[in-house]
Design goal:
The chain folds into three domains: about 100 residues, Arc Repressor Mutant, subunit A (Orthogonal Bundle); about 40 residues; about 45 residues, no CATH class. Helices cover about 60% and strands about 10% of the residues. The chain contains ten helices and three strands; from the N terminus they run βββαααααααααα. The protein has a three-stranded antiparallel sheet. Helix 5 packs across helix 7, helix 6 packs antiparallel against helix 7 and helix 8 packs across helix 9. The N and C termini lie far apart (about 75 Å). The model has no long low-confidence stretch (mean pLDDT about 85).
């Protein structure tokens, strides 16, 4: 097979023509690094090598663009990149970024756990669940959350003051408060203990 034309296109791509017909678009830098030029002969093996390199390069560029805006877990980043490339290319690209220290699940988990506990005021079990949803290993998620020293009662107290305190004068308001806190992962015993500070009413099991 003979390369008969290479035409620059948008977004760093070039159209490759083989034996007079359009074949595919590939990353321009990859074509240059592999010394692919008009007039060269290329066999199937070499073409596959260039295609794989181009796909990985494009996937890496996408991953770099994504992490320039915010942190991602390894799993989350692979899924994002794979929307515009093959899963294999996405995995290769993210693995390379991981080797460079640009993607780090332990660092991501610690930062995100702090946000979940201190800003969103989730319970520890709720924070672990969110980390797992982001692709963090269950053991790493639990160990990370357990390593953070935080007063769960203070979190419950802050949530009640912000969202529920003014409606605790009737049973409907109390039930709504308890349900909301349970959804965040807090235990009923912890919720009840803090709620007793806000009302003199006797609580029963919900």
């Amino acid at each position: 097979m003979k390369i008969t034309a290479i035409e620059p296109k948008r977004k760093g791509l070039s159209a490759l023509y083989i034996d007079g017909e359009f074949a595919l678009k590939l990353d321009t830098e990859t074509l240059l690094s592999h010394r692919i030029d008009v007039g060269n002969e290329i066999d199937d093996e070499k073409l596959k090598e260039v295609i794989d390199s181009s796909n990985t390069k494009r996937a890496k560029d996408k991953a770099m663009w994504l992490i320039s805006y915010r942190d991602y877990s390894k799993k989350e980043l692979i899924e994002k990149v794979a929307k515009d490339s093959s899963l294999e290319s996405a995995r290769k690209a993210v693995k390379r970024l991981e080797e460079l220290g640009l993607v780090n699940d332990e660092r991501y988990a610690l930062r995100y756990a702090h946000d979940l506990l201190n800003l969103k005021r989730l319970s520890k079990s709720g924070a672990v669940r969110k980390l797992i949803e982001k692709g963090i290993d269950r053991d790493l998620a639990k160990d990370t959350v357990d390593s953070i020293d935080i007063d769960m009662s203070e979190n419950i107290r802050a949530i009640i003051n912000k969202k529920y305190a003014k409606n605790l004068n009737d049973e409907k308001g109390k039930r709504r408060c308890v349900s909301g806190l349970l959804r965040l992962g807090y235990s009923y015993s912890d919720i009840k203990s803090v709620l007793n500070e806000f009302t003199d009413s006797c609580f029963y099991d919900y």
